[in-house]
Amino acid sequence: MFYAIYALDQADSLEHRLQARPAHVERLKALVEEGRLLLAGPLPAVDSEDPGPAGFSGSLIIAEFDSLADAKAWADKDPYMTAGVYESVEVKPFKKVLP
User: Fold this and answer.
1) Virtual CA dihedral for 14, 16, 72, 6, nearest 10 degrees?
2) Predicted local confidence at residue 11, as pLDDT
3) N or C: which terminal CB in the chain sees fewer CB atoms within 10 Å?
4) Exposure of 86 by Cβ count < 10 A (0-12 exposed, 13-18 middle, 19+ buried)?
5) Which is nearest to 61 in space by CA: 79, 42, 86?
6) CA angle 99–71–22, rounded 5-degree value
7) 94 φ, ψ to 5°?
């Protein structure tokens, strides 16, 4: 089943995000290689593809896991979590309908 991982960044965490990004992206690439990633991306803090120093307000990842517990465990080990980027993370079941 798919699960939505919705994470909100801590204030002023852009530097931590940039430092942890390579490890974060590597984990996402592993999901791609396994055919489990539906989508992933950051949430710009301002209405712009490149928010510059405004940074990001969080992230959204939708990926397939065996259970909610597995999805939560995966999210808890995300490099953004361990680097202190994320203030909070919600994981919820997701049902893809369209397209």
Assistant:
1) 0
2) 95
3) C
4) buried
5) 42
6) 85
7) -135, 130
Query: Which long-range contacts does 24-30 make (Cβ < 8 Å, 24+ apart)?
Result: 24/78, 24/79, 24/80, 27/78, 27/79, 28/61
pTM above 0.85, yes or no: yes
d(Cα 33, Cα 25) in Å, to the nearest integer? Answer: 12
Gyration radius of the chain over CA positions: 13
- pLDDT tens column, 14-56: 999 999 999 999 999 999 999 999 999 999 999 999 999 999 9
- Are 5 and 62 within 8 A, CB to CB? yes
Tokens 């984990």 — which residue? 27
Q: What is the pLDDT of residue 75?
A: 98
